[in-house]
Amino acid sequence: MISIILADDHTIVRQGLRTLLESDPELRVTGEASDGLQAIGLVERLKPDVLVLDLMMPEMNGIEVARQIKSRSPQTRVVILSMYANEAYVLEALRAGALGYVLKDSHSSELLRAIHEAHAGQHYLSAPLSERAIEVYIQKTKEISQEPFERLTPREREVLQLAAEGRSNAEIAEKLSLSGRTIEMHRSNLMHKLSLNTQTDLIRFALRKGIIE
Questions:
Q1: pLDDT tens figures, 99-139
Q2: Residues 202 and 176 in one domain
Q3: Residue 172: its pLDDT value, please?
Q4: What gap in Å lies between CA 30 and CA 52, rounded to an integer?
Q5: Rounded Cα distance, 22 and 5, in Å
Q6: What is the model's pTM?
Q7: Among residues 112, 143, 174, which one ends one of the domains?
Q8: How far apart are CA 173 and CA 132, in angstroms?
Q9: To 10 degrees, the CA torsion angle through 177, 183, 186, 191?
Q10: Which of 115, 132, 118 has the alpha carbon at shortest distance from 28?
Q11: Of 97, 90, 100, whose CA–CA distance to 120 is shortest?
């Protein structure tokens, strides 16, 4: 039996996914999350075999969740659900440690196959993407030079997304259970590392990286 956590910020989507996945006798949904931070907490507590994860979520985007799951719960395989077929998103997801990348307009059988493949430690990309060899994607992830964003710490990336969503330092501090002074430090550090000067610069960067919609 493959245990699964679903992470999507739309309740009706999670309900549909649960119905689909539990139609397979080998799959069992053990938890649901409506944002990225909640997804990480559930994974750390329940240690599922597979996390099915929406790419765009509040609090923490899917790529950052995948990156943190890789270190916090390495036995959990990640399958990304996305409406974006853009190669840049696929590469970022694979670099973050995701084994599956399924487009939301794919046939439901693709998601089921992606989960089984990921559980077996294999990569799976949706049909329009898999027409190009997976090996090519994997090679590209190794060739990409480290950009400034990659030098951010996990905490700085969390603060980046929350700040880009318009949260104040006080709100971010409460959400992450940190002091306001600590948040100010993280925010200052990430702005310096990314060569950003204003809140507008930060939002534009987050949009360009696909951190927020």
A1: 999 999 889 999 999 999 999 999 999 877 765 546 666 66
A2: yes
A3: 93
A4: 12
A5: 12
A6: 0.74
A7: 143
A8: 43
A9: 140
A10: 115
A11: 100
pLDDT of residue 133: 47
Range of the domain at 164: 148-208
SS3 of the chain:
CEEEEEECCCHHHHHHHHHHHCCCCCEEEEEEECCHHHHHHHHHHHCCCEEEEECCCCCCCHHHHHHHHHHHCCCCEEEEEECCCCHHHHHHHHHCCCCEEEECCCCHHHHHHHHHHHHCCCCEECHHHHCCCHHHHHHHHHHCCCCHHHHCCHHHHHHHHHHHCCCCHHHHHHHHCCCHHHHHHHHHHHHHHCCCCCHHHHHHHHHHCCCCC
Return the CATH number at 72: 3.40.50.2300
Report yes or no on 213 lying in a domain. no
Cα–Cα distance measured from residue 152 to residue 104, given in angstroms and rounded to the nearest whole number: 30
| Local mean pLDDT, 10-residue blocks, the chain (213 residues) | 96 95 95 95 96 92 92 94 84 88 92 96 84 60 67 89 92 91 92 92 88 81
Tokens of 154: 């996990």
Q: Is residue 202 part of a domain?
A: yes
